[in-house]
Amino acid sequence: MTRRELHLNLFVYPGGHHEAAWRHHASDPGQILDIGFYQDLARRAEAAAFDAVFFADGPALADNVRYASRFRLEPFTWLSAIAAATERIGLIATASTTYTEPYNLARLFASLDHLSRGRAGWNIVTTGAPQAARNFGLDAHPVHAERYDRAREFVDVVTRLWDSWEDEALVADQKTGLFADTDRIHAVDHSGPHLTVYGPLNIPRTPQGRPVYVQAGSSEDGRAFAGRYAEAVFTAHQTLGSAQDFYADIKARAATLGRDPSKVLVLPGISPFIGSTEAEARALYDEFNELTQPEYSLQQLHRILGVRLTEEQLDGPVPRELIETGGERGNGSRFQVILDIIDREQPTVRGLLHRLAGARGHRVIAGTPEQVADQLQEWYEHGAADGFNIMPPWLPGGFDLFADHVVPILRERGLFRSSYTGTTLREHYGLARPDSQYASPRA
Amino acid sequence: MTRRELHLNLFVYPGGHHEAAWRHHASDPGQILDIGFYQDLARRAEAAAFDAVFFADGPALADNVRYASRFRLEPFTWLSAIAAATERIGLIATASTTYTEPYNLARLFASLDHLSRGRAGWNIVTTGAPQAARNFGLDAHPVHAERYDRAREFVDVVTRLWDSWEDEALVADQKTGLFADTDRIHAVDHSGPHLTVYGPLNIPRTPQGRPVYVQAGSSEDGRAFAGRYAEAVFTAHQTLGSAQDFYADIKARAATLGRDPSKVLVLPGISPFIGSTEAEARALYDEFNELTQPEYSLQQLHRILGVRLTEEQLDGPVPRELIETGGERGNGSRFQVILDIIDREQPTVRGLLHRLAGARGHRVIAGTPEQVADQLQEWYEHGAADGFNIMPPWLPGGFDLFADHVVPILRERGLFRSSYTGTTLREHYGLARPDSQYASPRA
């Protein structure tokens, strides 16, 4: 039996996750578009034996790019160049089921999986940003339920495309002249309410068969989707209790559908500020928060809560009632995370903005390496996490502190690998390689 | 004044361009999905100071993959990994205006141009393959004229997306907190018959401003499109006269539209079989042709001519009348190339199939290095070409022979560079970097 070990991803965000990271003297904004910077970062994560690097994405420009590094690196191109500079670390790309064509998306992932020799993962998202719809010929974005409806159909279709070449279909026998056994290449022939795709894919089956399926929505639709499809789930929690509830819920949903719950990894986001003393770590955290720009932070809050607060309200209490009743919410599950913070900590508006500046509702830990390791271990050992999505406040230093000081402690405690045992992301995550659904039964 | 020099691209095709290349003992079919193989090949082309590597593409599986390596490597991922293994060589990706969304495509190219530091080129195609339509929810592919209509609108829209960030928009001033000057980021706000895109792009302007625009259709619609948009044109010609006519036509079309004809490079495809004697080169050529499979070759002919010939007809004359009147043609301009071969050479059906096996209607030259160089020089100096798209019959040997034996002769004759003078594809091709159309007039 394999020993259970926690999993660690590096969630890469241009400039770092803290909204003011790019302004800090430890950051070099001249490098935010330099692929070499990201290749180096991935090499460091690989040297630390991390499971994967992960890139978020979205098909629109954020309104508030005036104040923060909120442009988007395109994940397929960026991760392909990173694949070329690394050998083992997984490569997880976010891609939308709302605004891409399944045939195109299936090809991008198949190709990424081939060129990385089996390291691709797909963070499956639906796109809700209203700006995105207007970039794709729509006046308004599809409603939540309809987006998930398309997402399910989309995943079923691309799965069949990835399966459309059986593993044995590529023969390439120089002597007989048989390049591909077309009896083992299958039309998908899908025609559904949202999508019509005939297939087959024009790329042979990949090292992993399919990319690892990752999911990050925590709404009711999102959880149902995760229970059915996800092999890893990214999620945001501030407290052990909330993370435990979510963890139990996802595992139960998977089990109900006949899946092995241990093959659905729950990975909360953690943004660590690390110092040699707790005071030093807190001072560092404050240093970043002092660089925030209230106009930006208020826009971010509005994006999540649908309520517009003003600079005049910064030093007053958070108007809880207004928040609970007002506005259309951009992100339902994140809304609850923020309400909980308000109830638990009773912050001023400025205090709340600072609480969210680090990681947009994900958990920020400021402490010594031991304290950070303790927190991770607690969640890991108490049914709240199978591992973590590490969200460095700034790059590369915020990651280096974690890799150099927290990772060794996790290893000493027997919680994290000291080197890779496999070569594919499925192997890092302990997931089996799926057979093609078209595969002939084995003798 | 810069001396005129010819341009050379390496057109990469899995296995090589000869339809039976993968069967030849010089090929290793085990490498056709190995990114390392293609990275090595690009490094060789870079060592030879080639302008670019070029990947074709299409969003469907060819019917006849049973007999030949006719799957598709996805160009954006593949070229991004190649970018990471090279420093100077251009990277030209084929991408369809028929079956992609402009916002997604604009992001892929912007990102490729950033990560390659200005080496991206876009081979702009419309997709006519009937199998493709069925992968994108359509029963039949759009008619030719409508596809070009959408293509024009598409190019105009993505051009504006690439221009939507002025060069000075990215400020990233840590002190003032201004990340991007939003007065210099522009909505595209396009609403046309085929496309609605609001913008702006979510990626800052790229090193080249826009990828180099390449075009490869030689139909009337294709030529009109090239005259208006193309900065490099790929084309297939068997004779000097045909290439000269095409060359003059493209340059005239560009001039009529007020463009500088020297900034529209015409690059015919050439597939060279090279031997130390002409007899050796011909023997090599025959060796490959003997590996062809008539069933495959007849399918290919049917794809181009719309006429289905049979194995019984292989050793008889080509039924010219049937070909001229029968069938729906897949590729109008290639049709004329083949009719000309039939008229000029009066081949048997098998002879015609062999003539097309090398490069699907592109010119095949079998000869000594001097003979090959002579042929290129003749076309280059007689108004038929500004350079060539080199299509090695097999890989990597077919390319190595050209790089090792023909390139030095071209250099001795002062026809080709011995090293790069620039770092971007625009610089290799002698093209200026375009200003953003939204740029404020310079003082």
Automatic annotation (TrEMBL), chains A, B:
The record ties this protein, via Pfam families, to: Bac_luciferase (PF00296)
User: Which source organism?
Assistant: Streptomyces jeddahensis
Enzyme class label: oxidoreductase
The GO terms describing molecular function are: nitrilotriacetate monooxygenase activity
- Where in the numbering of this chain does the Luciferase-like domain appear? 31-384
Say which domain of life the source belongs to.
Bacteria
Keyword Lipid biosynthesis in the entry? The reply is no
How is this protein named in the record? Nitrilotriacetate monooxygenase component A
Record EC number: 1.14.14.10
Family label: Belongs to the NtaA/SnaA/DszA monooxygenase family.
Record's keyword annotation contains Oxidoreductase: yes
Q: Which gene encodes it?
A: ntaA_1
